[in-house]
Amino acid sequence: MESSIGIVTPQSMHFAEPLPLQNGSTLAGYDLTVETYGELNAARSNAVLVCHALNASHHVAGRYSDDPKTAGWWDNMVGPGKPLDTNRFFVIGVNNLGSCFGSTGPMSLDPTTGKPYGASFPLVTVEDWVNAQARVADAFGIERFAAVMGGSLGGMQAMAWSIMYPERVGHCLVIASTPKLSAQNIAFNEVARSAILSDPDFHGGDYYAHGVVPRRGLRVARMIGHITYLSDEDMAVKFGRSLQRAEALADGAAVERDGYKFSFDVEFEVESYLRYQGDKFAEYFDANTYLLITRALDYFDPARAYGGDLSRALAHTTAKYLVVSFATDWRFAPARSREIVKALLDHRHQVSYAEIDAPHGHDAFLLTDPRYHNLVRAYYDRIATEVGA
Amino acid sequence: MESSIGIVTPQSMHFAEPLPLQNGSTLAGYDLTVETYGELNAARSNAVLVCHALNASHHVAGRYSDDPKTAGWWDNMVGPGKPLDTNRFFVIGVNNLGSCFGSTGPMSLDPTTGKPYGASFPLVTVEDWVNAQARVADAFGIERFAAVMGGSLGGMQAMAWSIMYPERVGHCLVIASTPKLSAQNIAFNEVARSAILSDPDFHGGDYYAHGVVPRRGLRVARMIGHITYLSDEDMAVKFGRSLQRAEALADGAAVERDGYKFSFDVEFEVESYLRYQGDKFAEYFDANTYLLITRALDYFDPARAYGGDLSRALAHTTAKYLVVSFATDWRFAPARSREIVKALLDHRHQVSYAEIDAPHGHDAFLLTDPRYHNLVRAYYDRIATEVGA
């Protein structure tokens, strides 16, 4: 039976050995914040790495004692009896380098200056993250993961794992992802970055010293992102053209509205939703991290080193794959997942593919469509048998 | 044979009679900038009104003597021998109220204060524009248009004409349009407006007094818009993931690049394209006008007064319709045009519908796909026969 994973505690791991990065520079010592669920078995064969997407973190499942209402970002997927069952698997979440939830990133103090890295933090890539995650695996004594799994940008990391460390990955679960961004994907990222870079409070990335954050730019960036996470159909069902129903009056009362306000204030419910999402995000997310992670997305293109040939990039992989897409995801549409599947089949790699007819757009990978969850559950059952978990 | 319409000259028309607006207020006197092509025949039966979309104007066709390189926005459609043939039709373009190309709008001086209207300019709607355009028709002595035609927001005006002044519209050409915005359409507008409204140079809409314009916000707004005008496929063909090929060096030379720069500067060609479009737009377009016109788009919903029933809204129309959509237009997708067609057919109104399989997304309505242009040409041939043009 499914149950919640309960109270969890993150840990910070320090890595003293310098990390060579794809941009040619080297990161001296760094910290990674990590969370684990379940127990590593004696054979160390039941470990699963869960990679996070743009705005998420190491906090995959469970709750913190000081915030018992907020669960980890994939709590519906990871826990006792859940599709990725922590009664059988040892699950690791790692906050990626450059993120803003404890791991070393632009907000961290640069030991050479004693000031936050800010704009000087290196532009890390998916491949850099994978190398950093491999050291976490080393620290846990995990030679080979039963599975590496992720959705969206997390799926890119899983794919990169299978290419960079083929011998260390048993299964690779790539969900709602793509082998590389399209021009339109890059365009959305570019507009989001432009909003941040042109915010006068950005100060070239060194806003920490000015005691401000580029809140306006971050807010617009997040609003743009949110449009691409939802399907047109889902937005229509959720909000339609409904006017925001009640308007708060000065005395605290509210009045139901019917007609237009003829103003630029919130008029339609979808506006209220986007503004709320934007405001909330600007409260907790670091703008330099947003820039950096969207660029890592842009740059991801494992076929690039193989003359643009994804088949060749995946030729030497040894993992078995599960690739999942969602019919209404227009950010990373099913056709993009099918590119991965095709490239794997070119070399007769073992791959299962499912296209889930869920209405929720890209966000579907975070939701609980039963067909999707049952599929992942069945897939992990098979892995459990293989690895004796 | 097709030829260019040559040098044209806009004219400004003053209207002294106050215009009641949909928001309940009244606009005192106002000016409209207008351009005409061809000759009104003696029967005054050959007039065609061409309505413009967000960023266009009265300058539909031809060139100005002081800028002979730049043609009007629909110059490929309107001219001697062109689909809308100015040898046969008298064509009128009107810059809409609230726009920034000569007609009274937020940049204009409010006669009651002697200062620019700025934020106090009323939020005019599609229906307000149609009422103002009707007075232009009156001034030309045109009782009935052979056709009212427009693409996108211009198509909404054509549709509104057929509903508000059924006896004055012979044919209604609604191209790449929609009976109302979807939640996603509104969401994109809202993000664009948020970028402008939160620009510190916006000053609540009264930036003229501060000698600045909210350039950063306008730039981001236009970049967002541009993504929705192009299809994903078209962007992929135009830009793919190509790196900006050459980088200018300090000495004026250029160097071909192959690898990533690992920075937030322009890296991919699509970024260069968007930045260029954004920068150019911010040079010439007024931010208050952008806000106002996107809101007019949001508010357009002729079915709203009929309990949301578009069929009822169109029941009493008498025009014949040509509705055209483009297969790859995801801003106003073919399904939206089919809603219009269906509502017209509910009342056995005469409507021709074509879905053009062009790759260019929403922008296709401004381009010269031969199937599209031949269709419009044939349609106007029929109109010419009817009205003796």
Automatic annotation (TrEMBL), chains A, B:
Residues of the AB hydrolase-1 domain: 46-366
Q: Which domain of life is it from?
A: Bacteria
Catalytic function, reaction form: L-homoserine + succinyl-CoA = O-succinyl-L-homoserine + CoA
A GO BP term here is: homoserine metabolic process
Q: Mention any Pfam family matching this sequence.
A: Abhydrolase_1
Q: Which UniProt keywords apply?
A: Acyltransferase, Amino-acid biosynthesis, Cytoplasm, Methionine biosynthesis, Transferase
Record-marked site positions (Important for acyl-CoA specificity): 331
* Residues binding substrate, per UniProt: 222, 363
Subunit organization: Homodimer.
Tell me, what does this protein do in biology? Answer: Transfers a succinyl group from succinyl-CoA to L-homoserine, forming succinyl-L-homoserine.
Its protein name is Homoserine O-succinyltransferase
**Record organism:** Pandoraea thiooxydans
What is this protein's gene name? metX
